[in-house]
């Protein structure tokens, strides 16, 4: 099945862009938690190891992708990875939603959100951003975010990328920023 499960003209929604409609010979569904599951004739049989195929599809042929999604009519929107989700005060927060909101600001060119341990809420989001001019007005950015995402999702801190990362041009590594926070 590879990564091509949906395609077509995307819909641009208030929360992002869809991946298109489901292709032939593929089925897609969402679990109660919003995880995307796929199955169909184009799904691989499993992993080939030591001369044997080890199936990776779960019950009735459904494969858990690890991605979180939502439907917009017949089009699927991928919202983020299930393993990136943090829980704050009992609320599920997907860092990708906050990152997408930050990237709507013209001065922000990159964003990554990680979880900070919090004694009261369990976890709270912290954002690292790279800006066009290397400066950041944190209170103003938080105020603008409050109009785009739920208040409990607004990061407790918004910090600039470390200079060496901002200048490296490499792909953002969420684990690096999590370690930096800790």
The total number of structural domains is: 2
Q: Largest beta sheet: what is the strand line-up?
A: 5-6-9-10
Just give the CATH class of the largest domain.
Alpha Beta
Following the backbone from N to C, one meets helices and strands in this order, namely EEEEEEEEEEEEHEEHEHH
Q: Strand percentage, roughly?
A: 35-45%
Secondary-structure content class: alpha+beta
Quaternary state, please? Answer: single chain
* Chain-averaged pLDDT: 87
Number of strands: 15
Treating each run of at least 4 consecutive H or I residues as one helix, how many helices?
4
CATH architecture descriptor text of the largest domain: 2-Layer Sandwich
The CATH superfamily label of the largest domain reads ANL, C-terminal domain
**How many angstroms separate the termini?**
38 Å
Return the CATH topology of the largest domain.
GMP Synthetase, Chain A, domain 3
Low-confidence stretches: none
CA-atom Rg in angstroms: 19 Å
Largest sheet: 4 strands, antiparallel
Give a topology summary.
Elements: E1 6-7, E2 12-13, E3 16-17, E4 21-22, E5 26-30, E6 35-40, E7 47-49, E8 52-54, E9 63-72, E10 75-81, E11 86-88, E12 91-93, H1 95-102, E13 108-118, E14 122-131, H2 138-145, E15 157-160, H3 163-166, H4 174-181
Parallel strand pairs: 14-15
Antiparallel strand pairs: 1-4, 2-3, 5-6, 6-9, 7-8, 9-10, 11-12, 13-14
Description of the structure:
- It is built from four helices and 15 strands.
- It has 182 residues and is α+β, with helices and mostly antiparallel strands.
- The chain has two domains: 77 residues, Roll (Luciferase, domain 3), CATH 2.30.38.10; 97 residues, GMP Synthetase, Chain A, domain 3 (2-Layer Sandwich), CATH 3.30.300.30.
- The strands form six sheets. It has a four-stranded antiparallel sheet with strand order 5-6-9-10.
- A hairpin with a 4-residue loop joins strand 5 and strand 6.
- The longest helix has 8 residues.
- The N and C termini lie far apart (38 Å).
- The mean pLDDT is 87.
């Amino acid at each position: 099945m590879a990564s091509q499960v949906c395609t077509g003209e995307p819909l641009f929604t208030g929360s992002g862009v869809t991946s298109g409609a489901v292709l032939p010979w593929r089925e897609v569904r969402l679990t109660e938690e919003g995880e995307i599951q796929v199955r169909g004739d184009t799904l691989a049989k499993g992993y080939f190891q030591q001369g044997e195929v080890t199936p990776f599809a779960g019950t009735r042929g459904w494969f858990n992708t690890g991605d979180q999604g939502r439907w917009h009519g017949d089009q699927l929107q991928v919202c983020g990875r299930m393993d990136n989700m943090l829980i704050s005060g009992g609320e599920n927060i997907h860092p990708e939603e906050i990152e997408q909101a930050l990237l709507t600001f013209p001065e922000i060119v990159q964003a990554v959100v990680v979880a900070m341990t919090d004694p009261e809420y369990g976890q709270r989001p912290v954002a690292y951003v790279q800006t066009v001019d290397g400066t950041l007005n944190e209170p103003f950015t938080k105020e603008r975010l409050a109009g785009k995402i739920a208040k409990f999702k607004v990061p407790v801190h918004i910090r600039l990328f470390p200079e060496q990362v901002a200048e490296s041009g490499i792909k953002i590594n969420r684990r690096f920023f999590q370690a930096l926070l800790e």
